[in-house]
Amino acid sequence: MIMKTESSFLTRREFLKAGASAVLAAGVGQPFAPSAAESGAAERIRGKADACIFIWLGGGAAHVDTFDPKARGDGKKKPGSYYDAISTAIPEAQVCEHLKQTAPLLDRCVLVRSLSHGIFSEHGAATNLMHTGRRPSETIIYPSIGSIVSHQLGAKTDAVPAYVVMGYPNIARDPGFLGPKHGYVYLTQIETGPNGLMRPPDVDAARERRREELLAAWQEEYHRTHPDDQDFRAQAAISQQGFLMAGPEFLQVFDLSREQPSLREAYGGEFGQRCLLARRLIQAGVRFVEVSFNLNFLNGTGWDTHNEGQLNQHLLIKDLDQAFATLLLDLEKHRLLDTTLAVIATEFGRPPEFDSGGGRGHQSAAFTCVLAGGGLQTGRVIGQTDELGKKTVGRAVTVADFHATIHTALGINPHRNLYTSDDRPVPITDRGRPIAELFG
Amino acid sequence: MTTRRRSVHLGATRFIVLSILALHQQAVRAAEGGAPEGSSPAASFPVKVEIFEALPAGKELELREAEPVEEYAQRAFGFARFPTKYSANALPLDRSSAFVIRASLKRALPPGEYQFRLRAKGTARLSIDGESVLTTKPQQPNSSGNDPVPPPVERGNSPLRPAPYPHQEVLATVRLNGQEHAFALSALIGGKGLVPSPGELSVSFGRPGEVPKMLGSEDAPLLTDEGWASYVKEQSLRHRRDDAVRRQALSAGVRGQWDEYHERVRECLEKKPGADLPKVTGQTPVFNEIDLFIGARLEKAGAAPTMRISDLEFLRRITLDTIGVVPSAEEVKLFLKEPPEKRRQHAMDRLLAHPGWADHWVSYWQDVLAENPGILKPDLNNSGPFRWWLHQSFSDNIPFDRLAAELIQMEGSVYLGAPAAFKLATLNDSPMAAKADILSQAFLGEKLSCARCHDAPDHPHKQEDTFSFAAMLEGKPVKLPASSTVPFVEGFRKPRVEISLKPGEEIPPHWPFEQFAIPSELTEKVPASRGVPETRRQIAATMVSPENERFAKVIVNRVWKRYFGAGLVEPAEDWYGAKASHPELLDFLARRFMWSGYDLKALARLIFSSHAYQRAPLSSSAGIPDAEHRLFAGPMRRRMSAEQLVDSLFGAAGKHFDCEELNLNPAGNRGLNEFLNLGVPERAWEFTALMNERDRPALALPVAQSIVDVLTTFGWRQSRMNPVTVRQDAPSPMQTLLLANGVVGTRITRLSDSSAFTEMALRDVPLEELVPETFLRILSRPPTDKEFLRAMECLQPVYADRKQPGALRQQAGAATDRRVSWGNHLSAEATVIRMEEERRLRMGEAPTERLKPEFRERYEDLLWSLFNSPEFTLVP
After folding, report:
1. Are B626 and A14 in contact (CB < 8 Å)?
2. Which end of chain B has less Cβ packing within 10 Å, N or C?
3. Cβ within 8 Å, pair A124-B370
4. Domain A48-198+246-412 -> CATH class
5. CB contact under 8 A, A136 and B491
6. What is the location of CATH 2.60.120.260 in chain B?
7. A100 contact B CB<8A
8. CA distances from B637 to A240, B3, B311, B832 (A)
9. pLDDT tier at B813, thresholds 50, 70, 90
């Protein structure tokens, strides 16, 4: 079957071309098709998760100060971790002392310690790479992982969007060639909710009814005067879906006051509340929620801990720890942890050396991301780094592999082709291999 | 704050400088204010301004020996921008980094004591009769985001406009004797790590205790928010006009060369006459030749054309197609007043002469040519901002072959919006390979995209073609980068695509499309840009040559597709293996286009004048039919593009975007390669990706973001890493939501004091007049009888008592806090400031107090229902 993108309104391709691509899609001339063995493998390993919470530590979280601790440095000349390490529920793994609540829950997690890529100077380019799984191209705009999941799985119900972002809109999160339909609903502050879904405060039910009645009157009159206008009908039908989404059931999801005060407290500050909202969104049927941890003002730099940003980095780590640990337990309590893959991702790591201001620069030759729940075989460490965390040792995991693992966990074949509006086949990952031992 | 006291002797007159106060880094809130319209007599421009370039470093302000490169007059010692510097082709050029301006004025002031005030971002000096009175220090480039946010300015009751962060402000009190004095301001603009803009450079003066007035003509404005805003608006309008005049004058030579070239093109066409026009029966409506071609095929297929649309439907359609926005209420009224047989013709004349013509074309070519500027450390295949050059080219209606030739040759400034901005492709391993693909798709309908990393699987193009074209653009051989290939990966099947080049292989310049390289003496006549490789001129000349006909056909097909919703050839950017639906019509249009000197407006007029264009649309819900079934019984149904929609929403409501400047470093203390200032948008095409990949609240531009949200949801691309001819803009539920409940949708229907609907409702007219005018303004048509009654029923009960006696128009709400810039964005305070602005935006615009809520809410609901009707977004 050919996956048609959403451009048919104006641009459906000529019949002959579509015919030709149907042949392509059937596998005759496909340029990058996986071999039979790979396809088979992809079929064999298929996770059981049906939703994903993607926590984004923008700026480049220092793996040596969080999930891949090394011998301590001195904050000046001597390279190394900035904090002491503590034991975890994975016997062979330690984490930074400020991850106290998460450490005993690491049996629900996988530490992927051998990620690497080549972009270390540019946040934008690295952020884009970690979201799309690919370097940018000038012939095509690759979709974000959230958009791919939205495209492949859709929302669980028609009344909710498939993809929600808590953070700022940017190119890395965009749907690329999949088109705006696979974009996201976003919010930057919990209290204001997402733009477009919340009815303006001064529009009460009576006004809402008046609006709908007037609109219905114009539509009825239009149908009477233009009985054959299919385009008008098509557009009106889609609008109807939109109004459904702004209904009260979905909007209640954003009302965190419906949760127990003790639970809200357990989640912690703004970031924790975002994680709580993420759980509620997943419960409501959203497939992919990206939660950005962008409280850069806590330490002056966020996770981009150059210079004095290092001094208060522990505040970020503690916030992350509290929220993430609470999220895992909360998902577990709601019996959602097995079907919800929680991810902690970042654009790159940071070197063990300190800069002249006592902070850290960027490092993309080795860094850590975390997977949790999602029905994976957790309680493992994948890959390792050298003594100081500067390079990966042994098993390396590429960004494509990491994405392939997430897709596989969600039951999505990472080799499957997506099609651009001119019918070019583009595999979901660039030959990424899922980390096989995580799938039982 | 420091205070110094000193006295100086100035020539024969004794001046006493009582005090010089240096007030640093004051911040202000931006102010919007109305500006007086109309021009002023020459006497109002007594200040002579000279621009100096390439002065010796460290001695830039020693101008005794220096020769100015430019000279002009203006009203006062106040600068928001300068004239654009142009090449002989009228392409924007960079000035030297830094450059110096000197403003001089001879003027007598009544005797007495005055306080003079100099504001500058960097080095500047005010002198009176040759003696230095005030100086400011050089601006330092910023290296981190950790500067503090300055405290808010306590304005008290003072109407004085505070100096924006991080301007310096110095004051001197001077006693003048009533004689004429020579005032001179010299200032250093730009320099390494700084942007070449003046900020709010100004000199003002006043008696102690008075609100200062800008130094200049007698009628120069006060240095208040309103005064500065009106001054800047006037200056900007004057420069825009002057720039256009200077472009014409400067490029007279080049224009002559193109005129001469087009003479030769016509000779060349005369030698090969076109085919005879087809014949049709008397049944087929014929307005011009286009209808003969379309009619003949319809007759042959036994199909009937659709009916001609009504005058008002025509007006809405052609207005959207020419200037990209729905017709204004005034235009509709004017249109209806004219005799029916002349209406369409006159509207066409007005619209083709309207400045919006350029706006509407820029957005199209931004997509096709992948214009992709980045405002924050661009690293995602970003080009420079050649949008302004595109705009100027369409404003000047330069011949389209000249536009193409100038783009291909890439001369001028990279960051100030010349064709050179096209050559940039940040973090791209082979920028010219990217450009080769863009150019061949745009102008030849040949797609090289699939021959970028390997030979094309379903096109005849080899990877070598892309890179030999790239080498021609480069003017020298290029090496195939290792990243531009498809490596074999263990465990994966060998790619089925052919890889015929090896990484590191050197590819010499060579024109890859033999079929379009027809030898012609005309090729030598295409004018060359300056300082660029000759091979670029060769590409330009070969591509646009009338001999190969492809260029002209591709362009007329693109224009046809834009106006009919489907091309004669599909896809418009990829002609390989494609069949034209009307090959003879394509020939005819291409010949007419070439004959007119590649005049886009002449082509548009030809199409708009046809019966075919003026017919009822065909449903596009089944997509574009194949060439055999593409008969153009009518145009395909279209929806407004994202830009048309946003411009029409704001246009109908009479509101401005009132959004932030698209600039994340207003302090101007980093280079243009890292931070671009794309200005304050007035039309939707001027927006850009806001580039908050860092996800930091202090880097957000909330109002701009709310408009970008609507644009992207309707298919506008915030990132244009690749060229695109047809957008993905199918209807989606989110589109409905943003219009119904979103920030922009709510602003448009809100009866605030800036809404045109508020003013309409406040007039003393019967409701029977307000209702049809409301329909006209939004839907460009009067209501049907039923609609009229329904709207009357809604408003009648509250109309008579709608006005709130004594209520006044409110001041516009607080604008962006200008204390935040890249240099301090990491601070908690910057974060709080922007988050507060976001919250305020979500609260919505304040409703007018002049209308009672009972009426206002009902009228808002009526507006909401009209804007949210599918009829609004569908093009008739």
Report:
1. yes
2. N
3. no
4. alpha beta
5. no
6. 2-249
7. no
8. 21, 70, 17, 47
9. low
